[in-house]
Amino acid sequence: MSCQPSDPLQRQVAELLVVRASGHLDDQHRRYPQWELSNGDLQRLLNAGVGGVILLGGSAVELQQRTRKLQSWSDQQLLLCADVEEGVGQRFDGASWLVPPLALGRLHQIDPEQAITLAERYGYCTADQARRCGLNWVLGPVCDVNNNPANPVINVRAWGEEPTTAGALAAAFQRGLARGGVLGCAKHFPGHGDTASDSHLNLPVLPHSRERLEQVEFPPFRAAIAAGVDSVMTAHLLLPQLDPQQPATLSSVVLSDLLRGALGFNGLVVTDALVMEAITARHGPADAAVLAFEAGADLILMPADADAAISGISQAIAQGRIPIQRLHAALRRRREALARVQPSSPGLPLPTPAERELEQRLVTASLEQSFTAPIPPGEGINLIRIDAAWPCPALNGAAPALHLPQQHGFRSVVIHGQGVSPWQDDPEAPLALERLGDGPVLLQLFLRGNPFRGERDRQEPWRAAVQQLQRLDRLAGLIVYGSPYLWSELRSVLAPSIAAAFSPGQMPEAQRQLLSSLLQHPSDSLQSRDFTD
Amino acid sequence: MSCQPSDPLQRQVAELLVVRASGHLDDQHRRYPQWELSNGDLQRLLNAGVGGVILLGGSAVELQQRTRKLQSWSDQQLLLCADVEEGVGQRFDGASWLVPPLALGRLHQIDPEQAITLAERYGYCTADQARRCGLNWVLGPVCDVNNNPANPVINVRAWGEEPTTAGALAAAFQRGLARGGVLGCAKHFPGHGDTASDSHLNLPVLPHSRERLEQVEFPPFRAAIAAGVDSVMTAHLLLPQLDPQQPATLSSVVLSDLLRGALGFNGLVVTDALVMEAITARHGPADAAVLAFEAGADLILMPADADAAISGISQAIAQGRIPIQRLHAALRRRREALARVQPSSPGLPLPTPAERELEQRLVTASLEQSFTAPIPPGEGINLIRIDAAWPCPALNGAAPALHLPQQHGFRSVVIHGQGVSPWQDDPEAPLALERLGDGPVLLQLFLRGNPFRGERDRQEPWRAAVQQLQRLDRLAGLIVYGSPYLWSELRSVLAPSIAAAFSPGQMPEAQRQLLSSLLQHPSDSLQSRDFTD
Fold this sequence. Notes:
Number of strands of chain A: 14
Strand content of chain A: 5-15%
CATH superfamily of the largest domain in chain A: Glycoside hydrolase, family 3, N-terminal domain
CATH topology of the largest domain in chain A: TIM Barrel
Largest sheet of chain A: 6 strands, mixed
Distance between the termini of chain A: 52 Å
Shape of chain A: globular
CATH class of the largest domain in chain A: Alpha Beta
Number of helices of chain A: 17
Helix content of chain A: 25-40%
Oligomer: homodimer
CATH architecture of the largest domain in chain A: Alpha-Beta Barrel
Largest interface: A-B, 64 and 62 residues
């Protein structure tokens, strides 16, 4: 059932929705057609007053045209946002893809001043590129404290492992966003760092008391609010000590009493995506939106059914279940936020030289290396484990992780969740080496503990595999790109002579920097002849 | 050593060069930085009078901006070309990726009229999208007759396996290009279809006499010339019966006596890329360009060193080795060709509904299927072999080849040249099935015999693997995407009850059409929950 654009109440309610679209201009290129509305539906909903769009996928250059097109389908200024926590290039090809925030959290332990300066530049770079793409709202900073290494969903997305660091850097990032002229969003309130299950897939429970939340979870949110963050995103988490009935997203205790009351936040409260299993498993699409709005959310992100959400909230207001003042307050906050954004910039969204320099500096500042001698050239195996295969941003284009070892004589063998298994049933010798071939092995692990993969990647016996290769004197080197926890674990069993390195970032620049240093005298003369026909 | 833009002769010679650039706006995104000039070099060379650019890579939307930028660096109208033999989407994401020409060659055996109509629409669609991207020269039609199935470089790129079909369809494609307002290019003269080695890697020898060439190789070129093709590209082939010294690209016998004389071609003669090993192994960069121009080429494509090519040709003219009239004639042909192109179109380069319909119709017209019952749902293995992994256009986005079998219960295992080997050393049972898991196997082979891979893919024992799976009663189905020769070979050992199908095209549309038909009752309810954070 479609909402009724002629109904003035429904039109106002529609302003509060943020619906999901692909960054591609063309319906055919949607990567997730089940989540991403078609252009026909988008046009209809924007025409009916829907006030926001969250975008994902495609190139930054295409996104620039895409946001113009979307805006042309609406008669009001839209909120145009994306989950570009790690730079616009994290989601849109061609823009800057920056090291994960936790890289600066680690730097902050050693050099807090530099870390804060870089976090502020990180925010400004993201904001300025977002604005060049036509976005006006960055869904960051993550304000969760990653004090649980087993956390499958936050992990390196957090700015710190303890509250002070996370708060200082999240606030710096937010200052950068504000200077860059776009809105920010502190997430995921009241704190998603200490969960061991994934709220995309089910409803995690956080058993903490209000006192503990004040100590660990709240400080980064308070810091971001003090820095003027424009919006706060709710978490799909159950906190039985605060509200035994409803997850934070649907809880007036959490949103109204805590966030508005105790933390004094006056900006926009936005739900996390309502299409997530944690919500849809328990509530219908209208019900979920009504409960969130009733609890204190201003904006409804990715409702499972936009028409149902509009009708449901309108009905709840019309029937007096939710006072009309809530609607007016939410609309006012939305207007006030939009008044703060700078107009989108006509420049290309591709990195400027200064932004390139920042990308490189962030990589350099976050690397760790430990070896006595570089890896000599010769025949060997370049064994790569990637998080996901298609697409695989880390191996896009002329990835140094493939090309530099190949120029060195090492044949690439790439392992991923959809490939032939390299494992055999022997806990002491888990790698089936006869499937890989002979020679020394350079191991490059691109593993960061992404959402949706849950614990699957962690169950691979990389520790035993490293020990197996060392025992056979076949481990030429080890690089971990992503998880600092995996890096610590593997380094603990590594002989000091083995060339080893870590980068929190997986981007080509990190690969280039580490491999240039780990591989002895990279030969410039051996180049691929592959230039296509 | 840089060429001298102030020298009037060098400036005129520079017009004849076509240098290579990435389709990406940004230097950092070049996929082949060793072949693709940097923006700094491009600007310098275009400023020095270089008259053409060949582009590869990036998205169609980005290409539109890229061609404008390149044109802005020059004070003359540029030739802007690309190897978009199979639609602009073959090289630039987002535009139409069409079935390989040989698909229509096969259709021509059954329904010549429909094949010719479709080939003309194929050319028009390619031309119109090229023009919307700012290109004005399509490097097609391929006029080679693929009468040698072992040909590693032409294969499904040809319009036919015999001269009449190849000529009729190449001419139809050229008519489409002309109607679409861009230049075409018949290639690779005098005919590359009957070679069993790859001219990218070495110099193939074609032992044929002039009479035989007249019978088999020349007819498609004659047909394209009769259809008004604007340019002809030379082949890096040695034809000892015609010229025992020089390959066609550098042979005045082939270019002047045969192409200009016997075939009466008055348009532009362009070399194939001079950076190919077949040329660079024998000649320095200046030498190769001088020899090609001396032999009769008008345009020098991808010289190994643009400055050296300009200086070398200028010197040969200045010293009287090459008459200045040759230069004037080449410049005149270039001007005349450019006068025929229509201005670039402001529309988006993404497919229109009519172009979508053509994409689908070409797929539908080229499928083959043979089965008695569809594949029932259940646990099984979706074993996919791809030509190349990163990038892999066939598995981009929400590839039906992955997603439809997964929804059916089949777990994907993707094999590629850079993965863990699925093979074991047993000629009768070559697939190491314990590495793949249990259950029936749906085999999807994306193999078309690409260049650069030489015979490597063909050496995989797929015939024995199919027999092995059949013997074990584990072959649920077989789909070949690409090579009709592999399909014939495998079908010859296939039990008639096995669900099997073939598509010359590898695009998602072909996957969707075939799998929708081969898989029983695809369930719409099982959808991936993966919508990213």
